[in-house]
Amino acid sequence: MRRPSLPLQGPRVESQRKHKINDEIGAPELRVVDSTGAPLGILPRREALRIAAERELDLVEIAPQANPPVCKIIDYGKFVYEQQKREKQQKKTQTQTTLKEVRFKAGTDTHDFDFKTRHAHQFLVEGHKVKATVMFKGREILHKELGEVLLQRFIDALADVSKIDQPMKMEGRFLGVLLAPESKKTAKKKSDMPAGDATQAPSTEPAATAAEQSSVKE
């Protein structure tokens, strides 16, 4: 006697089901695999349903776009549970990426440069993008090369954890560059960071824009 399909927490969940199962499957022929993924071949729909019933499992359409559709003989209730469990785990481990901004002046001294670069290092290790900008005041705009030299120092100092996402460019009186975390490098432990890392420095100002952009300002 065929085992009835497991109830999926009431009609609301039933209506949101992503797969056709058992008698809902309408294709006359199906490519069938068992619960281990082993192929059973192309079978008539009635034969596939018979095999599922004998095993007290469900016939689940997992690839309706295929020709013929691909179906799997599995415990659908368990299948849904495992799928939901994986999705929750993926959401839990996802890192929310935000844009951080580090601002310099054309005449930024070494101490201030090092302090802000350590903050940028921490941002990148955490998986965030970092935009570094140099602001020119008055006649400083005539010496853009000073800003280029400073930003190149910044890029070189963070080369172990980043890559250039957008190269240097002028935006009004600002020269900026955008760095993105290098995925293979951000996996380093915080203990690998240079001495005096940003975790020991005072926290930066709170987010200033709707895009969650935060800045380390002068």
Question: Mind explaining what this structure looks like?
Answer:
The protein is built from five helices and nine strands; from the N terminus they run αββαββαβαβαβββ. Mean pLDDT is 79; it is low at 6-15, 186-191 and 193-214. The chain folds into two domains: 10-86, Ubiquitin-like (UB roll) (Roll); 99-198, Translation Initiation Factor IF3 (2-Layer Sandwich). The chain is of the alpha/beta class and 218 residues long. The chain is 29% helix and 26% strand. It has helices at 10-15, 45-54, 76-93, 110-125, 144-157; strands at residues 29-33, 39-44, 58-63, 70-74, 99-105, 129-135, 162-171, 174-181, 214-216.
Distance between the termini: 76 Å
The CATH C-level name of the largest domain is Alpha Beta
CATH architecture of the largest domain: 2-Layer Sandwich
Please give the order of strands in the largest beta sheet.
Answer: 7-8-6-5-9
The coarse silhouette is rod-shaped
Q: Which helices and strands occur, and which strands form pairs?
A:
Elements: H1 10-15, E1 29-33, E2 39-44, H2 45-54, E3 58-63, E4 70-74, H3 76-93, E5 99-105, H4 110-125, E6 129-135, H5 144-157, E7 162-171, E8 174-181, E9 214-216
Parallel strand pairs: 1-4, 5-6, 5-9
Antiparallel strand pairs: 1-2, 3-4, 6-8, 7-8
Please summarize what this structure is.
This protein is α/β, with parallel strands linked by helices.
Keywords summarizing the entry:
Ubiquitin-like (UB roll); 29% helix; 5-stranded mixed sheet; 5 helices; 218 residues
